[in-house]
TrEMBL record, chains A, B:
InterPro entries: ArsR-like_HTH, DUF2087, HTH_ArsR_DNA-bd_dom, HTH_CRP, HTH_MetalResp_TranReg, WH-like_DNA-bd_sf, WH_DNA-bd_sf. Pfam families: DUF2087 (PF09860), HTH_5 (PF01022). The keyword Glycosyltransferase does not apply. This is ArsR family transcriptional regulator. Residues 2-96 form the HTH arsR-type domain. One of its GO terms (molecular function) is DNA binding. Keywords: DNA-binding, Transcription, Transcription regulation.
Length: 190, 190
DNA sequence: GAATCAATTCGATAAACATCAATATGTATT
DNA sequence: AATACATATTGATGTTTATCGAATTGATTC
């Protein structure tokens, strides 16, 4: 299982138990098996709602049902419960939870937030760190080693946002591009 | 600690961890301590949102903060994590989760659902079991041993719902009240 | 004490979720 | 086959919750 799967599994596990009535269901099933209706009566919920909760618990692998006559008998599946709690006790397992947090994910999130479907900049991020993500993305439109006139640079940047002058200035200020001849020639730095 | 406190604590624990970003925070803090801003950057969230998440985790006792200069340094509190996972491993602890499930709780829930803030019946439950809770509640407006005219009964019931005739009939049908003289006198039965 | 910086709180918005009632599905019993 | 019954699914509604940006608080430094 990949680490991201593991993360998703753990998240689903906690979400499954993060509800008052589902937690009570686990408590009830810990003593004995129940039909859906019996659980619904014990909890004071409708049968449909109870069924919905059981479906969530089953999806997380916490309960299972066997059919018996008219009824579905639900019982507790202690394996997942034990696996998860064991994982929480091992401290060296916890850092793996942050594996999904990578620069790639962060950058994709920023780009998804501030670019529209055509790749234009909807808004400029307030946070500098996010703005740098935008600039790093924008500068990829220029080839390394190639020289550009100011007009060429402006036209390329205008495809991202009408305020191409701001982009042009910040690309230089943040050292993504350099210029010489008072702005006659531009080139990409990183 | 009472069992209900224990239940609330466990529920708060699961709710605290039932969020993608809060789970990632736990993962990050498992490696080292972070400031709020660093966490916000790593997660691609605003500082206020991150602060909100940390507050939830802190309330569940999962993280703690110490102040250092301008910064608040958040770190993981492994005790609660260990306590909770240990509890899940002990099967005899689980049935206690269902302790909050009592008739009282059920009745209160039904009443909260179907009565408005002034105690009037918003809607009539479809489920008979819940309707009985309503009737049992309504009949408390009448004193045991006292006789009432139909007009008195109707006026008292009208305070609960405009369909006082339905309530009057069902109170009799379900044996909460009795009448004689073809409806000239009513009295409470249970 | 004024200015600065991080963190929290507040107010608003949008998405997720629990719940219900009604309908559909599917299994047993006649 | 037909009916009856328990469960699942659907559609609708109200509540909760995650998120943001702005304003405020709190603490530090000059």
């Amino acid at each position: 299982m990949t680490q991201e799967d593991q993360f998703e599994k753990l998240l689903a596990f906690f979400k499954a138990l993060a509800d008052e009535n589902r937690l009570k269901i686990i408590g009830l099933l810990a003593s004995r098996s129940y039909t859906v209706e019996d659980l619904a009566d014990a909890l004071g919920l409708g049968a449909s709602t109870t069924s919905h909760h059981l479906a969530k618990l089953a999806k997380a692998g916490l309960v299972s049902a066997r059919t018996d006559g008219h009824y579905y008998i639900y019982s507790l599946q202690t394996d997942v419960l034990k696996d998860m709690s064991r994982q929480m006790l091992q401290e060296d397992e916890l850092p793996k939870l942050s594996a999904p947090v990578s620069e790639d994910v962060f950058e994709q999130k920023v780009l998804a937030t501030f670019l529209d479907s055509e790749g234009r900049i909807k808004a400029f991020p307030m946070q500098e760190k996010k703005y740098l993500v935008i600039l790093r993305h924008v500068v990829k439109s220029f080839e390394m080693g190639k020289r550009y006139t100011e007009k060429q640079v402006s036209e390329t940047l205008a495809a991202f946002n009408e305020d191409f002058a701001l982009l042009r200035r910040d690309l230089v200020d943040y050292k993504f591009m350099a210029r010489e001849g008072g702005g006659r020639e531009y080139w990409r730095l990183e």
